[in-house]
Design goal:
Helix content: under 10%
Number of helices: 1
Order of helices and strands: EHEEEE
Distance between the termini: 28 Å
Radius of gyration: 13 Å
Strand order of the largest sheet: 1-2-3-4-5
Structural class: mainly beta
Length: 90
């Protein structure tokens, strides 16, 4: 069964980074991972989920500790959204 996607939206980078640049991108949130794991993906609005043009963030909550990690340990748009559960994070 495919994972459920909580939401998808398009917003500008300026909204996410305090007015810098002004590029537009889509955002997908997936809360179907392991308990207390959320994946958040950002990409150009025309990017397919199978393309390696995503920035993916994994947010894990264990007790009172929240950990935020980036796909492949990078802030670059070089991950595949469809592979978010098996991608390495740091």
């Amino acid at each position: 069964m495919p994972p459920s996607i909580k939401g998808s939206e398009t917003m500008s980078i300026s909204e996410a980074q305090g007015g810098v640049l002004g590029f537009r991108f889509k955002k997908i949130i997936d809360e179907s991972g392991a308990p207390a794991v959320t994946y958040i993906g950002y990409a150009d609005p025309n990017t397919a989920t199978s393309e390696n043009k995503w920035l993916i963030i994994r947010v894990s909550v264990v007790g009172t500790t929240t950990t935020t990690e980036f796909s492949n340990g990078s802030l670059l748009f070089k991950a595949v959204w469809d592979d978010r559960a098996t991608t390495s994070y740091s």
